[in-house]
Specification:
Largest sheet: 11 strands, mixed
Order of helices and strands: HEEEEEEEEEEEEEEEEEE
Distance between the termini: 34 Å
Shape: globular
Number of helices: 1
Helix content: under 10%
Strand content: 35-45%
């Protein structure tokens, strides 16, 4: 129970942007078969690999987000044409027993397997409407945020279309202190085409990029112990499409543009050393 509470508290940590750790270097996935993957080519979401997160529907989600997560409603989370669809709608689901008064619905999945050091690649197409906040990120399943860390492989806010953000949070380096470490990159076709969002997580550094090119690198070279570098334990992978919120909704929500979707072609993970 404590771990679940801490995970929910960690959800408050969704980032604001940073551009202080930019880099430009090649990065490529290993040639080996992935250690863990989902190609989303089955008839439905594989619940042996993923779980739905609906834990804050009744109370409301953190960051003042406006969505109700469907928890298996095909309108919000489904497989179609070999891809995972997380789709946001303008709707009030008052008949749902855990409805918290939200005017929007959307989708969120969390990996059942804990994933750690290695290479990650998620091929996705993003929604660009104002008020959308898609994210691909990693959190531990227990412990206080930000002390146990957060890795944001990709975030994008619809009022700043085609700009993707990579960010790290820890006890000493986080947006609550204004010390978060990250970078951003313009991807002109992020909402009209699929792109490969990538993470290379190693003990000595975390590198994040898109389409084989790194644009953020943070080295494990700062004093502060775990306050600076808690990234030494397995995390869960999270895929979600938030609506509104402190960052995503900073310029309002364009209701006329809904529904909107994040489409994920595949998720692949190569454990370090493979």
């Amino acid at each position: 129970m404590l771990g679940r509470i801490m995970l929910l508290l960690a959800a408050q940590a969704t980032t604001l942007s940073a551009s202080n750790y930019a880099t430009d270097a090649p990065m490529a996935p290993p040639r080996a078969v992935p250690s863990w993957a989902d190609e989303f080519d089955g008839p439905g979401i594989d619940l042996a690999k993923w779980r739905y997160d609906t834990g804050r529907n009744k109370l409301g989600w953190f960051n003042h987000e406006k969505q109700y997560y469907g928890g298996g409603r095909v309108e919000n989370e489904r497989i179609a044409r070999g891809s995972l669809i997380l789709e946001a709608h303008k709707e009030r689901l008052s008949a749902q027993p855990d409805w918290g008064g939200q005017a929007y619905s959307s989708g969120k999945l969390i990996s059942r397997q804990m994933l750690g050091y290695g290479f990650y690649e998620i091929r996705a197409k993003l929604p660009c409407a104002r008020g959308m906040w898609p994210a691909i990120w990693l959190l531990p399943d227990s412990g206080n945020w930000p002390d146990q860390g957060e890795i944001d492989i990709m975030e994008m806010v619809g009022w700043q279309p085609n700009v993707v953000h990579a960010t790290l949070h820890s006890g000493l380096f986080n947006h609550a202190r204004g010390t978060q470490r990250g970078a951003e990159k313009t991807v002109p076709t992020s909402c009209s085409a699929f792109h490969r969002y990538q993470l290379d997580w190693r003990p000595q550094a975390i590198t994040i990029g898109v389409d084989g090119r790194a644009y953020m690198r943070v080295a494990n070279d700062r004093p502060g112990g775990r306050g600076a570098w808690p990234f030494d334990r397995p995390y869960q992978l999270i895929l979600n499409l938030a609506v509104g919120g402190d960052w995503g909704g900073a310029k309002g929500i364009d209701d006329s543009a809904l529904p909107q979707r994040m489409t994920i072609d595949y998720v692949r993970y190569w454990r370090a050393g493979t």
